Amino acid sequence: MRDKELLETFARNLRYLRSEREMTLRELAEALGIGRSTLSEYENAETDPSLTVVKKIADYFGESVDWLVGDTKKRRGW
C-alpha cells in the first residue's frame, strides 16, 4: 500500500471511530492527550501520526492497529 493510501485509510477509520462514539474532535483529543488541531490533521490525512499515537488511538477504541491502517477488514469484537 502506498503511503498516501495508508494515511487516507487511517484518516477515514479514525473519523469513523470518532463519529461512531459521537465524540467531538476536542473530546477525543483530550482523551488521547494530543492537540485538537493535530487530531484534525490526522483525520484529514494532512500529517503522519507517530506509531505511539496510532497505538494509543487503537487501544482507546479497542481496535487493532492493523484494522486502523487498513491491513485487515476484521474489527475486534465485531
Describe the structure concisely for a colleague:
With 78 residues, this protein is an all-alpha fold. 63% of the residues lie in helices and 0% in strands. The longest helix is centred in the first third of the chain and has 18 residues, at 3-20.
Describe the structure.
The chain is an all-alpha fold and 78 residues long. It has 5 helices and no strands. Helix 2 (25-32) packs across helix 3 (36-43). The mean pLDDT is 92.
Short key terms for the protein model shown above:
78 residues, mainly alpha, 5 helices, 63% helix, globular
What is the secondary structure topology, with strand pairs?
Layout: H1 3-20, H2 25-32, H3 36-43, H4 51-61, H5 65-68
**Straight-line distance between termini:** 24 Å
Q: Provide the residue-averaged pLDDT.
A: 92
Please state roughly what percent of the residues sit in beta strands, choosing from under 5%, 5-15%, 15-25%, 25-35%, 35-45% or over 45%.
under 5%
Low-confidence regions: none
- Helical content stands at 55-70%
Count of individual beta strands: 0
The largest sheet, given as strand count, sense and whether it forms a barrel, is: none
Please tally the helical runs, counting DSSP H or I stretches of 4 or more residues.
5
Structural class: mainly alpha
Radius of gyration: 11 Å
Shape: globular
Secondary-structure element series: HHHHH
